[in-house]
Amino acid sequence: MTVASARHILVKTEQQAQDLKNQIAKGADFGELAKKFSDCPSGKKGGDLGEFRPGQMVKPFDDVVFKESVLDVHGPVKTQFGYHLIQTIYRN
């Protein structure tokens, strides 16, 4: 069965997510930004969600983690929780 590990940053607005993505593109540390800005409890761990299987996360999130490129930062991805920046660490 496929498993993946990912980290994310969850914020309230698409604009904030895009701003953070731009900062990461310029070299800011994903984990540090997650600790500072993420609305998810995982932010304390740098956004790390650990390992999970398809279907354990909401569909838009799942689609990125299990279909898009690994290690790139994807988003903003809208879910009922807000806007995510998502980085898949590995998938197998």
From TrEMBL:
<dbReference type="Pfam" id="PF00639">
    <property type="entry name" value="Rotamase"/>
</dbReference>
<comment type="similarity">
    <text>Belongs to the PpiC/parvulin rotamase family.</text>
</comment>
<comment type="function">
    <text>PPIases accelerate the folding of proteins. It prefers amino acid residues with hydrophobic side chains like leucine and phenylalanine in the P1 position of the peptides substrates.</text>
</comment>
<keyword id="KW-0963">Cytoplasm</keyword>
<dbReference type="InterPro" id="IPR052204">
    <property type="entry name" value="PpiC/parvulin_rotamase"/>
</dbReference>
<protein>
    <recommendedName>
        <fullName>Peptidyl-prolyl cis-trans isomerase C</fullName>
        <ecNumber>5.2.1.8</ecNumber>
    </recommendedName>
</protein>
<dbReference type="InterPro" id="IPR046357">
    <property type="entry name" value="PPIase_dom_sf"/>
</dbReference>
<dbReference type="GO" id="GO:0003755">
    <property type="term" value="F:peptidyl-prolyl cis-trans isomerase activity"/>
</dbReference>
<dbReference type="GO" id="GO:0005737">
    <property type="term" value="C:cytoplasm"/>
</dbReference>
<keyword id="KW-0413">Isomerase</keyword>
<keyword id="KW-0697">Rotamase</keyword>
<feature type="domain" description="PpiC">
    <location>
        <begin position="1"/>
        <end position="90"/>
    </location>
</feature>
<dbReference type="InterPro" id="IPR000297">
    <property type="entry name" value="PPIase_PpiC"/>
</dbReference>
<dbReference type="InterPro" id="IPR023058">
    <property type="entry name" value="PPIase_PpiC_CS"/>
</dbReference>
